[in-house]
Amino acid sequence: MSPRRRPVLALDIGGTKMAAALVDPGGRVGRSRRVPTPHGPRADSASLWRILTRLIGSLVDDDVSIGGVGVGCGGPMTWPAGEVSPLNIPAWRGFPLRARLAELFPKAPVRVHNDAVCVAVGEHWRGAGRGVHNLLGMVISTGVGGGLVLGNRLVDGASGNAGHIGHVVVDPDGPDCACGGRGCLEAVASGPRLAVWAQEQGWHAATGNSARELADDAARGHEVAIRALERAGTALGVAIASATHLCDLDVVAIGGGLSQAGPLLLDPLEQAFRRHARMDFARDVRVVPAELGQQAGLVGAAALVLCGERYWSV
Amino acid sequence: MSPRRRPVLALDIGGTKMAAALVDPGGRVGRSRRVPTPHGPRADSASLWRILTRLIGSLVDDDVSIGGVGVGCGGPMTWPAGEVSPLNIPAWRGFPLRARLAELFPKAPVRVHNDAVCVAVGEHWRGAGRGVHNLLGMVISTGVGGGLVLGNRLVDGASGNAGHIGHVVVDPDGPDCACGGRGCLEAVASGPRLAVWAQEQGWHAATGNSARELADDAARGHEVAIRALERAGTALGVAIASATHLCDLDVVAIGGGLSQAGPLLLDPLEQAFRRHARMDFARDVRVVPAELGQQAGLVGAAALVLCGERYWSV
User: Fold this and answer.
1) For testing the chain A interface, which of B165, B246, B252 should be mutated: the one with the most A CBs within 10 Å?
2) CA separation for the pair A256, A143 (Å, rounded)
3) Cross-chain residue pair A250–B163, CB shorter than 8 Å
């Protein structure tokens, strides 16, 4: 098979699961596998790597059959070196993921980027941002992450960290953020922070997955849950307005678990966005749901390899 | 003279003055002239154009002697078409500046961009951002404007309007902004808005140029004037923190009249910035004064023509 027609091995590595897939040069996801990310005392760095290599081995025999390896991994990481220290995978601290994968596949390009960046890239290449040149892709979930495509190219920034919309300030006197700052979007609108706020207002979570439960309760008309989603949506709208004015975007694509809450989150978001994004040039920007769902990160990871310099110019 | 060695005609057109200069391929400003921008009932569109052509004629005979024309003009404008409607030049509404200049110089490239964008480009090419790949250049004056260079290229955005840091939201419940939004940086930290706030707190302006006077009074220890600059500096620090997290910047270069207030503005700015820009990758960003002063806009306008695709890729 000519190198240009070979599929790419795409990996999506997070605190909940590790996924692998073969993605063809057109961006279609072929064979794929996923395993839960192991946690606990026996899940050390080496065992995680073993589980990942076994996952890979179930899809790929050697590096002749693939055109490269693209990886989205939870941050932080050094970039482009790809030494990863995912917040939600404590066993990996400074783990040389890119170098290890390059040893497995010595003849293939290996590229590692932030998982939220890969989601944004996937949505730009084959999702809600197809054909536009300026996109902010967002993931609203345990955190609030994102990636920026401007002038039809991925923006990496000085250290590969461009796209951190979750740490745009939406209220300078607002709640403390895990980053050490104050009033960041993530401190208001992430799933866990949203649930904490609702609990302070008298809402009670029955199970562990409280953000999902909060969304369900809001859908059933629970007043505090509805107000919690309004509050998060408003903060999201403010941050997106700021990003739109700063970057002159075409499309903002919103994905991640919490975005499943639908209009109860997205209507207040749109209202706050339109209230604050008032420059003439901001009128045409479209704020839309992401289209690729769970596959966005894999498609974007593959695009790091498949799309020339558009998403990887190091 | 070989085309590559020819100087470029640079124009900087705003509500206060129109400036023209010959800028050599190394970015040095040679012969230059400026005239006050005429206002009032006799300053119609045609007479403005006559004055501009006379200004140009005092420096350039024909289009053989120059390598092109680069223009920074007050916004808004259509881009890249260069039909300009500068807020502070009411006589020009949809004036086809780029097309008119192209008629004057039919053999030379003519490029028109926002004046604040040209300041940012000038600071990136030959000023405080020399050698870095990711810069936000800001102009704090009658308004708060800016321009973004990311990955060593100017970011234009969907309509040439990227860089509008003045309309990043710093306080969602803050003062109304002229753009129709609320709590924009410009609504807090522009010279005129700053002076209005100080007057509401009991400060009195003796002359017309109240922002300059406010800075002078603060330097003399006037308490309300000092608090006004603190308030503006804090808002600037918050907006710059947001921009840093979103774009992963190397350098933020701050120019414009109000930045002359020095530490009384820049110290509170730095404090607010460090309070809010807490992600690891934001630690190394440098917030510094612009270096090129009044020449930044002219140098940046010339760079639109002189620097290949770095600042003009349309």
Assistant:
1) B246
2) 9
3) no
